[in-house]
């Protein structure tokens, strides 16, 4: 690279499009000035070098060859169905200039969620509805969240600039090195959060916020309201970490339940009032009942104002039984319906009889709640899946996330621990998440 004048640093990020567009993001830093510019250049053929003229002379830069990386799933199965691919060009839907109202992001980190493992197993209804062919949900590039660098801004988008680091939410397509997304789903990274932490924020925190809304505990309408008694299952996980913190930020009394004893410390660090572990602790249920405290009205039943349960079959009935008057059971997942990775029931091919027996048995055991009981005991069951709500009341979705970002920027929301896996090792990330032993968030790194 020829360097003229007082130039200190010169970076070019170049991407070839099949129609010979080269999208440029150029950063020039000299002793006296800093310049960042972007643009699309039409080239007759793929170029390997590019000459850029500057007032101080000219510089020839090597254009890095275009590579697009993705983790794709072509059929249902175990973690071996995650295929990492490196392609020489972008898929057609990402080609060309950024469309109106959209932002193009060079993805550097992509969050891994438990839901992605259900997508991979062909058990995720919204994947079947929105992705793949013939209602199968395959092929699919999974993933709901990214952090990266803006490389293109469409007409009509304000407040976003090329080169800026952002986080974004998308219904699928996030396990890839490039994402094109509507601008209202792109947000600034909270102060002091790194890219990996940012990529792990939106899906889990938005799920937690919506669950708390259904539990009638967030945002608190009136600070004179009494603080409520809440119980959070899997409190050291991605969603669990944010449920505990958001509930504590509202001043509620929070009991966190975790599987392994080793997960307790993390939930304590989020200021949960009581933390109870299940493995090797046959008294965990009794401890959780006791933690709810005395009845609010003498003679009335004791119990929690809201219980947040994504376990499914293993705890749903118990959770419902332990609601107090007007209590709400918020159901948002069913992970205990699936075998843990490494267990005899889990199969890498997902075709084994044992796997299907396990699933069918747990499906049949999943409780149904009787409206007559609910009415008589003033207890309710609320349930949701955010991926069906993407296009629904977008302004509420954005407002909810802005509340979360505000707390993060004020230092009132801590990032849970984040474990980073290189994108080609996506299979290991799924294996770890399905083992039931992970804490916090898991993230894939794209170069
Ligand atoms: N409805 C929605 O819109 C929505 C959105 C996002 C996530 N979710 C759901 O929320 C739950 C949490 O998601 P996440 O991504 O934050 O995962 P996570 O909580 O970080 O990880 C899963 C945790 O669940 C527990 N677990 C219990 N049975 C398990 C099993 N058979 N296999 C694996 N883990 C098991 C384990 O914790 P303990 O042993 O400590 O309990 C494990 O660490 C999932 O069920 C997910 O599907 C729902």
TrEMBL record:
Source species of the chain? Chromera velia CCMP2878
Entry's Gene Ontology molecular function annotations:
oxidoreductase activity; zinc ion binding
Q: Where is the signal peptide?
A: none
Would you tell me the Gene Ontology cellular component terms?
Answer: mitochondrion
UniProt cross-references to Gene3D superfamilies, sorted A to Z = Medium-chain alcohol dehydrogenases, catalytic domain, NAD(P)-binding Rossmann-like Domain
Q: Which PANTHER family match?
A: QUINONE OXIDOREDUCTASE-LIKE PROTEIN 2, SHORT-CHAIN DEHYDROGENASE/REDUCTASE
Q: Which InterPro entries is this protein grouped with? A: ADH-like_N, ER, GroES-like_sf, NAD(P)-bd_dom_sf, Quin_OxRdtase/zeta-crystal_CS, Zn-ADH-like_protein
Q: What is this protein called?
A: Enoyl reductase (ER) domain-containing protein
Q: Report domain Enoyl reductase (ER) positions.
A: 77-444
């Amino acid at each position: 690279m020829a360097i003229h004048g007082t130039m200190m640093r010169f970076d070019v990020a170049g991407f070839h499009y099949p129609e010979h567009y080269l999208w440029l993001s150029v950063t020039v830093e000299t002793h006296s000035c800093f310049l960042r510019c972007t643009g699309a250049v039409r080239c007759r053929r793929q170029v390997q070098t590019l000459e850029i003229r500057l007032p101080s002379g000219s510089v020839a830069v090597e254009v890095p060859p275009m590579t697009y990386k993705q983790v794709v799933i072509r059929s249902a199965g175990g973690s071996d169905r995650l295929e990492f691919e490196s392609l020489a060009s972008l898929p057609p839907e990402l080609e060309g200039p950024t469309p109106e109202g959209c932002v193009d992001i060079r993805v550097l980190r992509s969050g891994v969620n438990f839901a992605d493992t259900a997508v991979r197993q062909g058990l995720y209804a919204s994947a079947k509805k929105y992705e793949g062919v013939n209602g199968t949900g395959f092929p699919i590039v999974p993933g709901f969240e990214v952090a990266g660098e803006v490389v293109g801004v469409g007409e009509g988008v304000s407040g976003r600039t090329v080169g800026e680091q952002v986080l974004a939410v998308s219904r699928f397509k996030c396990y890839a090195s490039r994402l094109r997304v509507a601008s209202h789903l792109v947000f600034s990274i909270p102060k002091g959060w790194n890219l990996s932490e940012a990529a792990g924020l939106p899906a889990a925190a938005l799920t937690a916020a919506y669950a708390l809304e259904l539990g009638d505990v967030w945002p608190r309408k009136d600070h004179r309201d009494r603080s409520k008694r809440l119980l959070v299952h899997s409190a050291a996980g991605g969603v669990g970490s944010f449920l505990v913190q958001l509930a504590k930020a509202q001043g509620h009394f929070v009991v966190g339940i975790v599987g392994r004893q080793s997960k307790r410390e993390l939930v304590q660090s989020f200021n949960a009032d009581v933390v109870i572990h299940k493995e090797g602790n046959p008294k965990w249920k009794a401890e959780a009942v006791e933690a709810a405290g005395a009845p609010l009205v003498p003679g009335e039943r004791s119990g929690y104002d809201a219980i947040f349960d994504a376990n499914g079959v293993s705890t749903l009935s118990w959770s419902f039984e332990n609601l107090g008057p007007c209590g709400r059971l918020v159901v948002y997942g069913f992970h205990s319906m699936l075998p843990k990775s490494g267990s005899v029931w889990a199969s890498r091919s997902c075709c084994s009889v044992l796997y299907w027996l396990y699933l069918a048995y747990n499906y049949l055991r999943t409780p149904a709640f009787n409206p007559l009981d609910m009415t008589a005991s003033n207890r309710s069951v609320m349930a949701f899946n955010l991926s069906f709500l993407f296009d629904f009341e977008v302004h509420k979705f954005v407002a909810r996330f802005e509340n979360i970002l505000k707390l993060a920027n004020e230092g009132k929301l801590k990032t849970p621990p984040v474990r980073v896996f290189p994108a080609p090792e996506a299979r290991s990330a799924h294996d770890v998440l399905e083992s039931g032993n992970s804490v916090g968030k898991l993230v894939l790194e794209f170069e």
